[in-house]
Amino acid sequence: MPAPSSGAEFRDRADELLGPDGVHPSPQGYAEHAARMLPSLVTAARRLGRTDPVTA
Predict the structure, then answer these.
(1) Cα separations (Å) of 22 from 2, 6, 19, 42, 56?
(2) How far is C-alpha 39 from the chain's CA centre?
(3) Where are the domains of the chain?
(4) pTM of the prediction?
């Protein structure tokens, strides 16, 4: 059963977007999730205003 936060699309396309265990995303599922997350992550990174790499 997909996690509730994965959205209806993962339920509707479970055969395509979930791996054989029915819990974790398939490679296609990870790719689609990453593609959807990327714009938000880029926006958040830009709002931070930091362009130099963080070092320890």
Answers:
(1) 7, 12, 6, 30, 39
(2) 11
(3) 4-46
(4) 0.63
